[in-house]
């Protein structure tokens, strides 16, 4: 493992930011620390970087006990949400900064900066000031600067949080491709579930200072450890006394299935190809997600009588999973 966090706790006065957290972060992977605001994820990232000191516990980086090491001796690159650029320096000089303070040879610095600017697609902007770049370009510059010193670990704190939705999506795709090229162990903090599910190899869900679950995006989405993880990773609705994903439900004409719940369509919302149908089932309002073709085939409108059930393939998969778990 590249990073081993063992029994880490941190308080700020009476507030418990982290409570006996232990996490193993694999070498060469892209790991997301995911959770609600104030849950402790940024505090954990700053403890890994050495920017905060844990009250108890230990941090190892690449087999070295880094618990009491200064940030400069941990060989980590850190990217903040708001870039932290040197406004009076050009893009090239910003990227070169870490190498210059390490007194690397000028020829080596030039070669490394040229290589990184090509990698992040900013070669043509080398002589510009940060203020002359877009938000997405400044974030790519910040990543290049963090990578310049060849860190063993790259830490990103809400790296795309200050950007609009379209640019965030573009940079998520770009970060995934970049990581596949450089293979540096990367840990990023986000409260955006879609971002974590799309980009990460592994997700650590943190809430109220505790780790709720660790696993791949598929494992967490399909087999959440508890209701909090299920609610936090994607849409949920309630049918009877169970939580279920809206896309795992089916709508049927009345009388189709004696075991299905009966209800009335209250509201229909179209979002592109996806149709969200709200159905009153007793005192509950159940949300069902259909694609356009499914919706048109049912001919639904507000007031339609329908039946709601968990899709048979989903119910079957859950039953098989329970049997395997019992064995």
From TrEMBL:
<dbReference type="Pfam" id="PF12857">
    <property type="entry name" value="TOBE_3"/>
</dbReference>
<dbReference type="InterPro" id="IPR017871">
    <property type="entry name" value="ABC_transporter-like_CS"/>
</dbReference>
<keyword id="KW-0764">Sulfate transport</keyword>
<dbReference type="GO" id="GO:0005524">
    <property type="term" value="F:ATP binding"/>
</dbReference>
<dbReference type="GO" id="GO:0043190">
    <property type="term" value="C:ATP-binding cassette (ABC) transporter complex"/>
</dbReference>
<keyword id="KW-0813">Transport</keyword>
<protein>
    <recommendedName>
        <fullName>ABC-type quaternary amine transporter</fullName>
        <ecNumber>7.6.2.9</ecNumber>
    </recommendedName>
</protein>
<dbReference type="InterPro" id="IPR024765">
    <property type="entry name" value="TOBE-like"/>
</dbReference>
<dbReference type="Pfam" id="PF00005">
    <property type="entry name" value="ABC_tran"/>
</dbReference>
<dbReference type="InterPro" id="IPR005666">
    <property type="entry name" value="Sulph_transpt1"/>
</dbReference>
<keyword id="KW-0472">Membrane</keyword>
<dbReference type="InterPro" id="IPR050093">
    <property type="entry name" value="ABC_SmlMolc_Importer"/>
</dbReference>
<dbReference type="InterPro" id="IPR008995">
    <property type="entry name" value="Mo/tungstate-bd_C_term_dom"/>
</dbReference>
<keyword id="KW-1003">Cell membrane</keyword>
<dbReference type="GO" id="GO:0016887">
    <property type="term" value="F:ATP hydrolysis activity"/>
</dbReference>
<keyword id="KW-0547">Nucleotide-binding</keyword>
<dbReference type="InterPro" id="IPR027417">
    <property type="entry name" value="P-loop_NTPase"/>
</dbReference>
<keyword id="KW-0067">ATP-binding</keyword>
<dbReference type="GO" id="GO:0015419">
    <property type="term" value="F:ABC-type sulfate transporter activity"/>
</dbReference>
<keyword id="KW-1278">Translocase</keyword>
<dbReference type="GO" id="GO:0015418">
    <property type="term" value="F:ABC-type quaternary ammonium compound transporting activity"/>
</dbReference>
<dbReference type="InterPro" id="IPR003593">
    <property type="entry name" value="AAA+_ATPase"/>
</dbReference>
<dbReference type="InterPro" id="IPR003439">
    <property type="entry name" value="ABC_transporter-like_ATP-bd"/>
</dbReference>
<feature type="domain" description="ABC transporter">
    <location>
        <begin position="3"/>
        <end position="233"/>
    </location>
</feature>
């Amino acid at each position: 493992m590249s990073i081993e966090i063992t029994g880490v706790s941190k308080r700020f006065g009476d507030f418990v930011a982290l409570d006996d957290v232990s996490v193993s972060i694999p070498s060469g992977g892209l790991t997301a620390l995911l959770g609600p605001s104030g849950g402790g994820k940024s505090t954990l990232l700053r403890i890994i970087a050495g920017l905060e000191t844990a009250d108890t516990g230990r941090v190892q980086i690449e087999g070295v006990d880094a618990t009491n090491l200064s940030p400069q001796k941990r060989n980590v690159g850190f990217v903040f949400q708001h870039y932290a650029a040197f406004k009076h320096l050009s893009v090239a000089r910003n990227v070169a900064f870490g190498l210059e303070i390490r007194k690397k040879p000028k020829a080596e610095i030039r070669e490394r900066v040229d290589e990184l600017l090509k990698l992040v697609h900013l070669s043509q902007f080398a002589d510009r000031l940060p203020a002359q770049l877009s938000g997405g370009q400044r974030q790519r510059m910040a990543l290049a600067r963090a990578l310049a010193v060849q860190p063993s670990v790259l830490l990103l704190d809400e790296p795309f949080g200050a950007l609009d939705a379209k640019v965030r999506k573009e940079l998520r795709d770009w970060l995934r491709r970049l990581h596949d090229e450089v293979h540096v162990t990367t840990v990023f903090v986000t409260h955006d579930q879609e971002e974590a599910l799309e980009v990460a190899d592994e997700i650590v869900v943190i809430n109220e200072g505790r780790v709720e679950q660790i696993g791949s995006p598929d494992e967490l989405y399909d087999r959440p450890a508890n209701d909090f993880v299920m609610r936090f990773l994607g849409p949920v609705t309630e049918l009877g006394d169970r939580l279920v994903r809206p896309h795992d439900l089916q709508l049927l004409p009345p009388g189709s299935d004696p075991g299905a719940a009966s209800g009335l369509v209250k509201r229909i919302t179209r979002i592109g190809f996806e149709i969200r149908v709200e159905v009153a089932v007793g005192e509950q309002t159940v949300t069902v997600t259909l694609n356009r073709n499914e919706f048109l085939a049912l001919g639904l409108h507000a007031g339609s009588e329908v039946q709601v059930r968990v899709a048979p393939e989903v119910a079957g998969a859950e039953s098989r999973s329970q049997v395997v778990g019992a064995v």
